[in-house]
Amino acid sequence: MSPDELEPISLAQVQRSVADELDRLAPLIDELGRRFTDAGHEIALVGGPVRDAMLGRAHHDLDLTTSARPEETERLIAGWADAVWDMGRAFGTIGCRKGEWQVEITTYRSEVYDADSRKPDVDFGVSLVGDLRRRDFTVNAMAVRLPSRELVDPYGGVLDLAHRRLRTPGTPEDSFSDDPLRMMRAARFAAQLGFAVDDDVLAAMRAMAERIEIISAERVRDELVKLICAIHPRIGLRILVETGLAERVLPELPALALERDEHHRHKDVYEHTLTVLEQSIDLEHRLPGGGPDFVSRFAALMHDVGKPRTRRFLDDGTVTFHHHDVVGAKLTRKRMKQLRFSNDEIEAVASLVELHLRFHGYGTGEWTDSAVRRYVRDAGDQLERLHMLTRADCTTRNKRKAERLRRTYDDLEARIAVLSEQEELASIRPDLDGNRIMELLGIGPGRDVGQAYQFLLELRMDHGPQDPEAAEAALLAWWAAR
Question: Which cofactors are reported in the record for this sequence (predicted)?
Answer without folding.
Answer: Mg(2+)
